[in-house]
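To: structure desk
From: M.T.
Subject: fold request, one chain
Message: Could you run this one when you get a chance? Sequence is below, nothing fancy, just the single chain.
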Amino acid sequence: MIYDHFIPWTAQEIVAATGGELLCGDIHRQFAQVSIDSREISPGDVFVAIIGDVHDGHAFLEDVIHRGICGVVINKDKAKEIKVSKWHDKKVIAIAVEDTTRALGDLAAFHRNRTDASVVAITGSNGKTTTRNLTAAVMSPRFNTLSTIGNYNNQIGLPLTLLRLQQGHTWAVVELGTNTPGEIARLAEISSPEIGVITNIGPAHLEGLGSLDGVMREKGDLLKQLKSDGKAILNADDRRIIKLAEQTNKAVVLFGLSENAMIRAEAVKEKTNGVSFTLVLPQKRVPVDLNISGQFMVSNALAAAAVGTVVGLSAEQIKVGLENFSSAPGRMNYFQMPNGIHIIDDTYNANPDSMKAALLTVKSLRADNRSILVAGDMLELGKQSASLHNHIGALAATSGIRRIYVTGEFAEAVASGAHESQMNGRDIFSGTKDEILADLKNYLKSGDWVLIKGSRGMTMEDIVNGLKEWAGVKPSA
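Reply: Done. Structure tokens follow.
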């Protein structure tokens, strides 16, 4: 797909967008793009010095200027430490703002509003990335669609996505993440969406959001920021989302398995390499065969189908987009190794609801074979961490899991839950990832199903790659 071109910036526009102060340079100077990466910035771009958790972009100002960058956006308090006067002779444009991270968002909001693109914003406790990718797959054949890369869903990642908008784009499909109250409101303010999707509300990021009601309020902030004629696409099967639907003054489109859903699924059937269902749309019913495992993926597909319906796609166009989609690495990826062992790689992230859904998927697929769970910690659950991990251990034990491997700070909580639910202690293994991998190699046999899952910070893909290497399969990058 070829787009027209990037829209240039002037220093005057940057000042207007951020409310910044021009410290030096020509207010009419033009720039190609906005960048925060000193390693990859190109001549003609403007550099925004972000203060991150690890690096402070202000430390790289002299380097980027030495390499010919002639525009920088800096924090006002840092400007006092920098001898800006020495940049005059180099004709550097320096703009000072109160907060460079907020300024990046302001630039993205300004840029989003000067293009012709409309925005779909997706949030939820589970499934938002898959839903975003499914939605982009449905829309891309018909519309010039920009989509979030990777997990660019925070106050730095979302602006970087929107700043990639070109005049040829007609839609942007973006993902909004949060772990602190107020983040969704800010991200929705930046993206100003025409369509807002909430996939579900569950026990994720409780450490920052406090409770399920806190999660509900945070996700609900997306609806408050929708354009006045915007559409709220909401999960009819989630009682807290239905509560949000009753509170919003925006037009609501419901998706789900419920009878009151406008976009729904019937005759859902799980298969080894995917799941099939009948997609019921207002105008037509069509059969759909998803190439992604797990009945819970049907809900994500319905959300994408609802977006497709709202933007005017036909049932056939929606069907083709859904069926052409393949899941991203680490998201319920199924494969069978040469030694006959089945692996479900769901290592990208984990919370209690997604862990439960993954366990149900394994139960439905394993038939009479053994199933094994390899679990790392579910992070950011706050005071409820131990009890929620304990519950997962109990759930694994009662869902037919033959053996549990656990690692991390809350490994013993998972093990205790399994033991309390009558799992034999000999079938519960707690240790490091290396210790788990070594035991797995001795324990596994052909026909076994292995679910590997944990939060992103646990890097549980190390287990997946270790098993692949053991079986003679090239590990993932």
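Reply (cont.): Residues 405 and 429 are 5 Å apart (CA to CA). Let me know if you need anything else for the meeting.
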